[in-house]
Design brief:
The complex is a heterodimer of chains A (322) and B (278). Chain A is mainly α and 322 residues long. Chain A contains 13 helices and 2 strands, in the order H-E-E-H-H-H-H-H-H-H-H-H-H-H-H. In chain A, strands 1-2 form a two-stranded antiparallel ribbon. Chain B is mostly helical. The longest helix of chain B has 33 residues. Chain B starts with a helix and ends with a helix. The chains are: A mainly alpha (322), B mainly alpha (278). Chain B: InterPro entries: MetI-like, MetI-like_sf.
Chain lengths: 322, 278
């Protein structure tokens, strides 16, 4: 169930591989050229639009480049400026980390809770599953970002309702400390996508596991801890990695809620927004490229950490446990 | 807890959750029909007076470009992206899932790795390339990459599906003298329809919603998409134009809502399998 594994896609355990190696080799030879023909578009894309640009952006990150004049080599200057002299950079790092750390667990917890709720629903499960999923399709749109801005603005529904129950927050959108939470809630609102994945995972847990433990006298909490959590852990892991990577790259809602400038007072200056501002508004393409590479590095490091920790809590039944 | 309560509690929680969840959408539709003075003052969802002229104002479009044109532009890009992704991802996926060739493991690992690659790392050089090719402010930068299978997510999705098809299909095809090309076209492709439909729907919706790439590459008002127009509409208008702005918002999400109602089975299943198989 590890969707992110890089296991051999044709399946090493397939009967084809149990044949004598000579035949396998012949098959490889026969299928070599057809395979490359099928892969041609992908290989061109991987080279021209992925690997090449990665190399170029790595190079540009060591230059001063404004798109019009030729790039000028400045060594590590972009990186040192970013890390030591640019408070706005650190502000954007802080905002993005705060966002990821708050939004991802909230969204996944809600998704898991909703999935367990729907699993126990006798009727209407398909209806609720679709209805809960709908925000995930609409949430990335400019329209919903604008709705969010209005709902969380001064005089919007959220401030009014909270004010009426004695929590005067004022408009979140205009408040540098609260604006980021409007974006958090917009992300959490889209919990339907991981919920659908959780629900499918829950439905794959063999019911006899629950029946056996019920016979042994295990209560609901015990069953959740000892059966649901370990059996679902690969799916939790998949969702965790996916949502974390996506959350680092959130852009449209931050852009719309701040009016495009990361305001108020850089309160919604997310990493990608600052990258866009440096690169495309201020024409510091080299600086933006350096930012992109540090983002890649950060995502890489966090993914590796997640994979490392996963060994201690992700349970793969098809590997006979750990 | 009584038996009745135990049965009704989950339904009550689900229904309450649904109300909260759908509130922003109801608010969007309601506001699009409200006259200017009601938008800020009234918390009531139901408009006191229906202001249908919001929609006529919205239909006029932005900067002299009509909404029909804007929707047409969005549609052109989205349909181009759909065709590109379905063709290129199914080709690559077939090779990864069903053929043996040298470097397969390395290439597949690279493809998986690009799943995690933030778009921003390749953004600037891609922009430079398209700029040099004179393609900025055309739809090529938005559509061409899809024909080159750059969206690893969909390659992966289709690979996962094709891996599940029985191996015997190719064995018997080979006995009948079918090479890889005919096997792909006549056997694997038709059987992969569910995965290809999922790819098509997600590509459509994501491209339709896309804002970042469109903002970077498109400038001329007549090239604008509905998303970009919505954005400039906000810049041009004050809160008094809330009604027309949200009328335009409703128009811009309509295709997605329509897609959702028609294809929800594929959407939900596609999402579920992406995280489970393998």
């Amino acid at each position: 169930m590890s969707a992110l594994s890089t296991k051999d896609p044709a399946g090493a355990a397939r009967p084809a591989d149990r044949r004598p190696p000579a035949r396998a080799r012949r098959r490889t030879r026969e299928q070599q050229w057809p395979a490359y023909v099928f892969l041609t578009p992908w290989m061109i894309g991987a080279g021209v639009l992925t690997l090449g640009p990665m190399a170029v952006s790595l190079y540009l990150s060591f230059t001063d480049y404004n798109l019009f004049d030729p790039p000028r080599w400045i060594g590590l200057r972009n990186y040192t400026e970013m890390l030591t002299e640019d408070p706005r950079y650190w502000r954007s790092v802080g905002t993005t980390l705060l966002f990821v750390v708050v939004a991802v667990p909230l969204k996944l917890a809600l998704a898991l809770g909703a999935a367990m709720l729907l699993k126990n629903l006798s009727r209407g499960r398909a209806f609720y599953r679709s209805a809960f999923y709908a925000p995930s399709l609409l949430g990335a749109s400019m329209s919903i970002a604008l709705v969010w801005k209005a709902l969380f603005n001064d005089g919007g529904t959220v401030a009014d309702v909270l004010g009426a129950v004695g929590i005067p927050t004022g408009g979140w959108v205009g408040n540098p400390d609260l604006a980021v939470y409007a974006v958090v809630l917009l992300t959490v609102w889209q919990f339907g996508a991981p919920m659908v994945i959780f629900l499918a995972g829950l439905q794959q847990i063999p019911p006899d596991l629950y029946e056996a433990s019920a016979l042994d006298g295990a209560g609901p909490w015990r069953r959740f801890r000892s059966i649901t959590v370990p059996m679902l852990s690969p799916v939790v892991f998949f969702n965790l990695v996916l949502e974390t990577i996506q959350s680092f790259q959130v852009f449209t809602p931050a852009f719309a809620i701040s009016g495009g400038d990361g305001g108020p007072a850089d309160g919604t200056m997310f990493y990608t927004l600052y990258l866009y501002e440096r690169g495309f508004t201020a024409s510091h393409m080299g600086y933006a490229a350096a930012m992109a590479w540090l983002l890649l590095l950060a995502i890489g490091v966090i993914t590796v950490i997640l994979f490392r920790t996963s060994r201690s809590w992700v349970f793969y039944a098809d590997e006979g446990g750990r | 807890m009584t038996i009745a309560a135990k049965r009704w509690l989950p339904h009550t929680v689900a229904a309450a959750g649904l109300l909260v969840l759908l509130y922003p959408l109801a608010w969007l539709v309601a506001t699009s029909l409200k006259p200017a003075d009601e938008v800020v003052t009234s918390l009531d969802l139901w408009p006191g007076r229906f202001e249908w002229s919001n929609y006529t104002t919205a239909l006029e479009g932005v900067s002299g470009v009509s909404v029909t044109r804007l929707l047409g532009n969005s549609m052109l890009i989205a349909v181009g992206a759909v065709i590109g992704n379905v063709v290129s991802c199914s080709l690559a996926a077939y090779a990864f899932a069903r053929l043996r060739f040298r470097m397969r493991k390395a290439m597949f690992a690279f493809m998986i790795a690009t799943l995690m690659l933030p778009h921003h790392v390749v953004l600037i050089p891609q922009y430079i390339v398209f700029n040099q090719l004179g393609m900025v402010d055309t739809y090529w930068p938005l559509v061409l990459p899809k024909f080159l299978a750059t969206e690893a997510f969909f390659v992966f999705l289709v690979v996962q599906f094709m891996r599940g098809l029985p191996r015997e299909l190719e064995e018997s095809a080979r006995i009948d003298g079918c090479g890889p090309f005919r096997t792909y076209w006549e056997i694997i492709l038709p059987l992969s329809r569910p995965a290809l439909i999922t790819t098509a729907i997600f590509t459509f919706i994501w491209t339709w919603n896309d804002f970042f790439t469109q903002m970077i590459y498109l400038f001329a008002p007549e090239n604008a998409t509905i998303t970009l127009a919505l954005r400039s509409f906000v810049d041009q208008s004050s809160t008094s134009a809330f009604g027309p702005m949200f009328a335009m918002s409703v128009i811009s999400v309509l295709p997605i809502v329509l897609f959702f109602f028609v294809f929800q089975r594929y959407l939900v299943q596609g999402m579920a399998t992406s995280g489970l198989k393998g």
